[in-house]
Amino acid sequence: MRIPVKRTVLVMTSLMVPLGALRSQAPITESHAVSAPISGVGYHITIDSADAAQRRIRVAMTFSVSSVSPVLLAIPAWTPGSYELGYWAKNISSFAATAGGKPVSWDKTDYQTWRLRPAAPGAISVSFEYRNDSLDNANSFAKPELALLNGANLFPYAAGRPFEFASTVELRVPAGWRVATGMTPAPRGGYSASNYHDLVDMPILAGHFDFDSTKVGNGWLRFASYPVSEESASLRESTLSNLSRIIGVESAVFGETPWRSYTVMQIADSAFGAIVGLEHQSSHVDVTSAFVIGQPVLTSVYAHEIFHAWNVKRLRPADMWPYEYAHEQPTTWLWVSEGITDYYADLALVRSGVSDSTAFFTTTAGKISEIDALPPVGLDDASLSAWIQPTDGTADSYYSKGSLAGLMLDIMIRDGSDNARSLDDVMRTLYHDAYKAGKGFTGDEWWKAVQSASGGKSFADFDARYVDGRDPYPWASVLPLAAMQLVADSTRVPVLGVTMGEIQGGGPRVMSIAPGSTAEVAGVQPGDQLLSVGDIPGDAPGLAEHLQARYGSETKVMIPITVNRGGKQLSLVAPLDYTWRVQRRIEPLAGASAKAVRIRSGILHGTTG
Ligand SMILES: [Zn+2]
After folding, report:
1. What is d(CA 247, CA 235) in angstroms, rounded to the nearest whole number?
2. Distance between the two ends of the chain, CA-based, in angstroms?
């Protein structure tokens, strides 16, 4: 589903044309997707315990109009940082509008825009309910004990008007609930935002959660962790300490910490099977399986999301500057915004001492293996396709492949400048020249900054082969420049071709069978209980390892398999399949030049020279 092109064009035009010009050129009629101006905008969020139990957030919006021209109120189609169309208006019900206690007539002009026809100039009040029951950090939800409020779902804006309008937010939640947010407290209670972009980029977490703070540099770091006691006091202390160290080394890349306080909002849920983070300019929201609490992978997510506070929330591709909300904003540069952020997350862990160089090498080798297993895809194409999530496995490849491109660029810049400069210089230069100048960066500016950092070397060939093109990355020639090498170990492993799972209380069962596999040829079926595979009991923990130990070095094995199918024991047999498993490692390169050793040390420690 796409927003009609006509609407896209209209919104973009209105952003480029000065408002005065728009007024004179385009009288506001029903056929234009431009709202009458509104002023004095206030948002009011109410959640009481009955609402929370019903998964309901009540939203009111107040504003004034100076004419009877139609007001077009729109709800964003997406939440910046989450590159997919959510069409948040779908969660809205019970929409109503009143002025002076009387209903204001309204209809919808598209699925996310309400058109109000005021009867007279003056104050208007709009109200609706927002209902959602999914744990999604791009969405808003309320449940007993907790609410996550994302402005991009809840706060309508006047369509086609500039986003630079101030507003206030009033929040009413059950007594005893805590509130964590990056929003600026207003002098008379509630919060305020000077423009819509900031308003929707400062989520609010409200409810019962642990809330810890510490000072980092000149700012505060806050850590909200739900549910209460999910993290022990000592774990929360070490989380704060890790976060502080990460912020220190990430700030060093850009030469500044751009917030007065930064809040990590973490929601753990035993039923959630993944870890997802969503970045904002002074906070981020993680939704995570409870199972990874205290695991290093969670720290790497923190490092990734916090780096976004600079890279994408502030320094951003021109294609997404400024953010627009009515439609998607495709860019070929997500590999920089996401991939290079991921590279810096890996660097932040090793540079801060949260992990060691071996962990950095392992993570990097893992990314190389991950990309090698995918169909070749250009970084720019993968970036552009983010919005449609290709199903060939490459959907999120701009993360790992972009991270690897970051490593290559870092090595080549350091090599070209005798380690006087690094990828840090590129990030810092663009941060100042683009973000600080109030604009996004262009492709030309990116490559110019890379070329300048590397001492003038052209990266046109690099772009053509490794960003625009789909050539495999030349690790054999690049890694040695940083005193590293890629080592691949190949092992021949037997493969049965079954996925095992547990059916409630019934013990391990065959869940699925790979087409053409040994199991399929033998006639194993989903639901079978494996009794034995060759000499190995079918319920042996680590069946794959046992198979490898027993049959790894053999050839042409006919493997007997016994299964229990519905109480009947069956004897099956098939030729055992083998495959080659390649395990990659990155290692320090023995006998490397002094320069290459300096480069490796510079990457790992964030130093030059
Ligand atoms: Zn990210």
Report:
1. 18
2. 52
How many angstroms does the Cα of residue 398 sit away from the middle of ligand 1? 10
Token digits of residue 444: 């030309």
pTM: 0.88
**Span from the CA of 79 to the centroid of ligand 1 (angstroms):** 13
| Cα 278 to middle of ligand 1, angstroms | 7
416, 508 in Cβ contact below 8 A? Answer: no
SS3 string, 413-447, reads HHHHCCCCCCHHHHHHHHHHHCHHHCCCECHHHHH
The answer to whether 357 and 351 have CB atoms below 8 angstroms apart is no
CA of 259 to the centre of ligand 1 (A): 19
Inter-axis angle of helices 296-307 and 233-254, to 10 degrees? Answer: 40
* CA-based nearest residue to 161, from 2, 318, 313, 13: 13
Distance 334 CA to ligand 1 centre (A): 9
Q: Ligand 1 centroid to 312 CA: how many Å?
A: 9
For residue 152 the two structure tokens come to: 């991009």
Interval between CA 375 and ligand 1 midpoint (Å): 22
pLDDT digits (tens, 9 = 90+) for 18-54: 333 333 333 444 445 899 999 999 999 999 999 999 9
The C-alpha atoms of residue 417 and residue 452 are separated, in whole angstroms, by: 9
Per-residue tokens: 48: 């009481």
Residues with CB in 5 Å of ion ligand 1: 338
The two structure tokens encoding residue 83: 């590159």
Compute the C-alpha angle 223/228/234, nearest 5°: 60
* Burial profile 525-535: b = 16 or more Cβ within 10 angstroms, e = fewer: eeebbbebbbe
Structure tokens at 504: 């409630």
How far away, in angstroms, is 201 Cα from ligand 1 center? 15
Distance from the CA of 342 to the center of ligand 1, in angstroms? Answer: 7
Question: How are beta strands 283-289 and 261-269 bridged, if at all?
Answer: parallel
CA 274 / ligand 1 centre spacing (Å) = 15
- Residue 130 · residue 153 · CB < 8 Å: yes
Alpha helices in 467-512, H assignment, sequence order: 475-478
**What is the CA(194)–ligand 1 centre distance, in A?**
26
pLDDT tens-digit series, residues 506-534: 778 999 999 999 999 999 999 999 999 99
